[in-house]
Amino acid sequence: MFALQTRGLTRTAAIALAALAVIGGATACSSGTTSSSATGAATAAAASGSHVSAADFQAAIAKPGVTVIDVRTPAEFASGHIEGAKNINIEGADFATQILALDKAGTYAVYCHSGRRSGLALNDMANAGFTNIYDLDGGIGSWSNNGGQLVTGSA
């Protein structure tokens, strides 16, 4: 994983430093705050890009000006997607180009099947300078399980 220089430190101090490094690494890898309240918590979470519950995602996409992005394949998108979503396939060769063509000041709500690919998209977008990004925690399955409707067909 990583090497820790312990020259000149007591065994206790070296263990304490290693523990702090592990704790710091674990918190740095956290995926953000999953909010359970649809009243403003999703807005605060999106300020830096965050994973949100299906209820918060629904509240977020109901706001004017939010662009919904489905990062699944075109076939997955056609089989059922959130109404009004734009399909930008994260596995497509032109994904980065399509994302970079978007307004970085805009607000985006991304989702996929389970949350893995949209989590990657959130990270890519945040690294590209986007700051207002919602990621549907649990993906389209969570959306459907919480009463969210899907439409079929291509964009």
- End-to-end separation in angstroms reads 44 Å
Class based on secondary structure composition and strand pairing: alpha/beta
Strand fraction equals 5-15%
Name of the CATH first level of the largest domain = Alpha Beta
| Oligomeric state of shown chains | single chain
At the fourth level of CATH, the homologous superfamily of the largest domain is Rhodanese-like domain
Largest beta-sheet characterization: 5 strands, parallel
Order of helices and strands: HHEHEHEHEHEH
Report on the architecture of this protein.
It is a single chain. The protein has 155 residues and is of the alpha/beta class. Helix content is 41%, strand content 13%. It has 7 helices and 5 strands. Strands 1-5-4-2-3 form a 5-stranded parallel β-sheet. β2, α4 and β3 form a beta-alpha-beta unit. The relative contact order is 0.17. The model is unreliable at 1-47 (pLDDT under 50).
